[in-house]
Amino acid sequence: MNKRTPDTVRDVMSRDCYRVTGQTSITNLAQGLALHRLPGAPVVDTSDRLIGFISEQDVMGRVLDSIYHDDEAPLVRELMRQDVLTTTPNKSITDLAQEMLGAKPKVYPVVEQQRLVGIVTRRDILMALLTIRRH
């Protein structure tokens, strides 16, 4: 089996990624993040354009608060961050790895022509770097 050495984000990104809309409840989001074992998720509009990002950390306190007060959990749009660090499918793995050294996100939405085409995680990039190192 001849596996090609990954060069770009496209080679390692997850294309069929978990995403939510602004109308998603925080409870449903939390269940989805747990199910998919993700630290956060991109938020998209009806055309799959990236409009924000929401992380476990963003919602944990609000879920806890809604349990204590026995009230309805808020919607994603109320807690999401609109200023999102993204990458493109054509970015080199080593360039993104350099950027990840300083930035905090563990998940980067991959955007092409303003549409979400996938996600890439720090783990994906680390595994790709290890593959590159072996070759």
From TrEMBL:
Domain of life: Bacteria
A Pfam entry, by short name: CBS
Signal sequence, renumbered to the chain: none
InterPro entries per the UniProt record, alphabetical: CBS_dom (IPR000644), CBS_dom_sf (IPR046342), Diverse_CBS-Domain (IPR051257)
Keywords: CBS domain, Kinase, Transferase
PANTHER family: CBS DOMAIN-CONTAINING PROTEIN (PTHR43080:SF2), CBS DOMAIN-CONTAINING PROTEIN CBSX3, MITOCHONDRIAL (PTHR43080)
Protein name in UniProt: Histidine kinase
